[in-house]
Design a protein that fits this description.
The complex is a heterodimer of chains A (168) and B (184).
Chain A lengths: L3 H12 L2 E6 L6 H9 L4 E2 L5 H13 L3 E7 L7 H9 L5 E7 L11 H13 L4 E4 L8 H11 L2 E7 H5 L3
Parallel strand pairs in A: 1-2, 1-3, 3-4, 4-6, 5-6
Chain B lengths: L2 H8 L7 E4 L3 H9 L5 E3 L7 H9 L6 E6 H6 L3 H8 L4 E7 L2 E2 L5 E2 L8 H7 L5 E5 L3 H11 L3 E6 L14 H13 L1
Parallel strand pairs in B: 1-2, 1-3, 3-4, 4-8, 7-8
Antiparallel strand pairs in B: 5-6
Helix pairs in contact in B: 1-2
Classes of the chains: A alpha/beta (168), B alpha/beta (184).
Amino acid sequence: MNAPFSRQIIDTLKDKQVTFFTSVPCKLLANMITLLEQDTAVAYHPATREDEGLGMCAGASLAGKTTCILMQDSGLGTIINALAALVQFYQLPIVMLMSYRGSPGEPVPAQAPMGMLTPELLKLMQIPMLHCHEAKDLNEIASYVDFARVKQGPVVILLDFHLMSGDQ
Amino acid sequence: MKRYALLKTLVPVMRDSLVICNIGIPSQELFAIEDRDNHFYMLGSMGLCTSIALGLSLNTTKNVIALEGDGSMLMNLSTLATIGNRGPNNLFAVIIDNGSYGSTGDQASYTSAATSLAGIARAAGCERVVECDGDAAAKHLERALNEGQSTLIIAKVESGNEPVPVVPLHPVVLRERFRICVSH
């Protein structure tokens, strides 16, 4: 596994002192999940649902940790209330690393509906979003982690299907 | 015994622990009994109490207690599987099971009929699960804390709420005073 983009993303988050990770799986995130499973320098504990994962991140945040959840964009539909009434309400910095399954390249029709809604939902919720179309966009991730801490709230790193499906 | 009376027995046992308290009337009752900096009152996001406690317990050496309810536990049962596999020994939960949704008008929950939270927790991989009457819960919690063994206590009480006001504190105030407790 070379997966240079996946390695760059995880290394960036670690360099920025993100030390607690959770995930609900996606094949586009699989390489990053493998890296986290093998990494003894960070805590990684898989969640069963995206809202459970946000709860775990919130708890870790109460211990002063900056946290990250890896998830599909379809999971955004599951966590609107947890985002609004927990993460945003208590002003907790959380990095949401989101595979953009509902974007061009996606072969599964059922991924399209949430994909169409994802950018608008994030905008409506005033959650800052870094939309990564190509490799150079990944260089902005570090500043979004900083911004999560400055703003004291969630930020989303949205990773296009084409970008991550080529990262082998 | 109702929830309010049970919470009164738990407060003295929880003074040295970090407490994540369930949304709604449970938090309001706990606040009315004794407001402390080591209490984190959930003001929203029903169902996530035990998951927040799990995330906290994985990042501190202090004991963490989730004050959970039957209705909210039913909303997030799969977190029991995560606890069964990844829960550390400093995580404790008291699931106050009054067989009803107390904050929304005491509608019956399924634990008042066919469903056993203890059975679900054990099947999810949680090793130490105690089911008891409410008046025995404080004793079981104290023992579990002393032994340093992660335990889920399902405490059976009657349905019913104390007439108490909403928690008047700003969420960021709650967050900050709680973080200071975690770090000291």
